[in-house]
Amino acid sequence: MPSLVSNSMLQKMFIPLLLLAFLLPITASAATPSQDVALAPDVPSPGSELWRAVRRADTNQPPTGVTQIKGVERGILINSAGEDWRNFRMEMLVPTGGLGFGLVVAALVLFYLIRGRIRIDGGWSGKVVPRFSINHRVAHWSLAILFLYLGLTGLIMLFGRFALLPVMGPEAFSVLATISLVSHNWLGPLFPFALIGVVALFMKGNGYTFKDIGWFLKGGGMFGGHAPPSDFYNAGEKTWFWLAIFGGIVITISGYILDFPIFGQTREVMEVAHIAHAVSAVGLLIASFGHIYIGTAGMEGSIQSMTKGYVDENWAKEHHSIWYDEMKASGKVYSDVESLKKSN
Amino acid sequence: MANMKFYCDAERCIECNACVTACKNENDVPWGVNRRRVVTIKDGEPGERSLSVACMHCSDAPCAAVCPVNCFYTTEDGVVLHDKDTCIGCGYCSYACPFGAPQFPKVGAFASRGKMDKCTFCAGGPAEDGSAAEHTKYGSNRLSEGKLPLCAEMCSTKALLAGDADVVSDIYRKRVVNRGASVMEWGVNYERASLDANKKS
User: Fold this and answer.
1) CB-CB under 8 Å, B43 with A66
2) Which of A95, A122, A295, B44 lies deepest, with the highest CB count within 10 Å?
3) Fold of B4-193
4) Which chain B residues are closer than 8 Å to A168 by Cβ?
5) Residue B71 Cα, gap to closest chain A Cα (Å)
């Protein structure tokens, strides 16, 4: 019997027909999803909630994405902490720091004009008392010179754009800033070693005692009147010592974090380290103005304790009488410099 | 003048990284630096989105605000560029930038920093337009030739748009209208569409 469909036609159509038989049910179910299969939740356009989270509007940490680029924090789309840091540095640190420096300079100038140089009341006696050994002096000046140089280069980087750039122009200021940054980064790691030297040698005698309260109550004798008798270090000197130590420790740790950004520090770590470093450094520098003033222009007979290593007898009697009495009792008051040098 | 901006359409980006490769090649970017990168949010989950990000050329650029030597400048077209000769490599711009655009080739001491490098919107730098010195330091200057950045030109799906902000937003607006952007229309509420919606608690 002849059929409408020939054998060869059937053979050619067999595989397509087989595929159709399998595909038809699949396409049918796709066109009309059954109620049992739940649609996977998607983020419909515009995806406001998703992008709000990415912008870190509601959470503390930005969601980490995936990226093909290797590197620290490359998967983070938005670093919101950067704007907080920018605002702190530009709106708080720079103006307040500048104001602080201006105020301390003004206060010291005013103090000098009103109080004048604190003289040795009894005048120079010519007799000398040894105060700081050569080791003390080397340790102090190493730290002092390092501190001042690092402070100066740091201030160039903090304030230079506002104070020096308009005066020097971009090319010259860039050279100065490069020299400042490079020398600051190379000399900075040496700072803790100088600090340890000073801590070790100057620790003895710098512990606070109850007598120091009396010194503070009298304003150290700086505003008229006399402070109660002091030992080797008076309360003001002790305060500077501890400020320098703790400030120095913060500066050292934060400085090392900043100076070697090759250990995977995130931007937030660097920003916090920068703030700690800058605030401690600016604070210490402002306080150091007082220390430098009182050791040089502020008091007669003080600077030579750290340059020559000895002080005048009357200076010791007036400012550190407890220590003076001990030195006199142990025969360490010399009639002149030659006999002091001969005894060593 | 034009106000040049980038816009990456997250609905179209397929994470092909053609923009990354095009930029790196065209600008002879230093080793270790990738001016442009593609970040994928919710990778592998429903609602995965990718975004291509380089420098956003901010109108109030945080990088420019914190630079200690003021080496940044904004061109008439709104492109934020910087001067590599003035740059001291301190890294403050990379702390302040929300998008991680400023990068460093690690050629300084102890493999730290070097001169900062970032996306220039293919507009070169302060050196003379089209000079060899400009190309070595900053990459190609397509804008001076009247062209747009190569990343956007190379984008396979035209997800990454670059150009005048008005033109770019007009293109995107048309796309949004065509897509019918309405959460109510899709029948999905906002909570289900959030970042953590698919996480098993």
Assistant:
1) yes
2) A295
3) Alpha-Beta Plaits (3.30.70)
4) none
5) 8
User: Is residue B7 within 8 Å of B172, Cβ to Cβ?
Assistant: yes
Which of A43, A88, A153 is best to mutate for the B interface (most B CBs within 10 A)? A43
Note the helical H segments in A232-295.
235-259, 267-295
pLDDT of residue A78: 86
Residue-level pLDDT, tens digit, chain B, 201 residues: 889 999 999 889 999 999 999 999 999 999 889 999 999 988 888 778 899 999 999 999 999 999 999 999 999 999 999 999 999 999 999 999 999 999 999 887 777 788 999 999 999 999 998 899 999 999 999 999 999 999 999 999 999 999 999 999 999 998 887 776 554 455 555 555 555 555 554
Segments making up each domain of chain B, as ranges = 4-193
Cβ distance A45 to B109 less than 8 Å, yes or no, reads no
* Complex ipTM value: 0.86
Question: In this complex, is the C-beta atom of B189 within 8 Å of any C-beta atom belonging to chain A?
Answer: no
* Residue pointed to by tokens 């109550």: A217
B14 touches chain A (CB under 8 A): no
Q: Which fold has domain A127-343?
A: Fumarate Reductase Cytochrome B subunit (1.20.950)
Judging contacts by C-beta atoms under 8 Å, the chain A residues touching residue B110 are 260, 262
Amino acid at B156: S
Please name which of A120, A116, A118, A117 lies closest in space to residue A315, comparing C-alpha atoms: A120
- Chain B residues whose CB is inside 8 A of the A178 CB are 88
Task: Kindly determine whether residue A77 and residue B110, on different chains, have CB atoms separated by under 8 Å.
Answer: no
Domain ranges of chain A: 127-343
Amino acid sitting at position A114: I
